[in-house]
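Weekly puzzle thread! Below is a chain. First person to post its structure in token form gets bragging rights.
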Amino acid sequence: MMRRSMKELLLLAVRSVANWHRPGDLPNVFIFTTPRSGSTWLMELIQTQPKFKLCSEPLDLRIPEISRRLGVSSWEELYQDATWPRIQNYFEGLCSGRIRFLNQAPFWPQYRALTSRLLAKILHGGEAQMARLAESCNARVVLLLRHPIPVSLSREVTPRLEAFLTSDYSGHFSEEELAFGWEIFHAGSGLEKGVLDWCLQNAVPLREAESDWTVISYEELVLAPAAILSGLAEELQLEAPELMHASLHKPSATAKKSDRVTADALNGPMDGDQAWWLVSKWREKVTEAEERSAMQILERFGLDQYRFGEVLPRPPLWIGPPLKAPSL
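Winning reply:
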């Protein structure tokens, strides 16, 4: 077992007493998405609203304290059906304020001492229990999608890919889908493996989506955010939506992970052409053949939210009026 430094122990102690959280009448919010999909930006927009406490990546087992708290040591174990009671109890503890080790420290930019709503950004785990988690925790679900190719290109690792195929979670897929997944796992390119990971993570919630979930795309949040923000304000019972609009063009805390050109764009003034470039620049990095091969993986899983040759998602994932690409 890895020993924690005095600095780490001190931070845990500070965080455990830094916040007084008691649930109110308004619902909690759980954002489910893949890494590198704009979730930090979306989380920071919602966090402009009163009473929210941030809880970032509460199921990331690479954080030792999370693994210890859950009593789960591997991704495969996290995705076994028998682990569900521990996950449910853990989330109920986070929402009630009983579990406090993930509290924000006072020096974080969006720290609040007194809170009554939990805002959790969940990038790893829980995809097959989203409805049950929402019901047991008085939470509204937001499912954020981004085109699988830019997501895959910007990710360094896909730590759960094998667990998706070997754990009880695999029971959500047909024998043909699993056989195809193993083919990609063993012989696919890095891009194909990333897109497979995207499909395995998102296929289950998309197939099992509840009518009260808010399902949105990164592309529309960048290009035409008005309808997205309006829907979020209504569905999540947000009290000061004007604060989201005011913070819309503030770069997220993860902008530093982007390449220099992208980071400059995020930190500068945003016009229509610039916004379009941000959602379509991935096409500069793949050939037509690579794009076609990657998007055929979505077809094998019956996912048509994104299609070959198209940058933007299709309705109903795209909520507002259609947009035409500018001449860049």
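Puzzle host: Confirmed. Bonus trivia for everyone else. The domain at 7-300 is CATH 3.40.50 (Rossmann fold).
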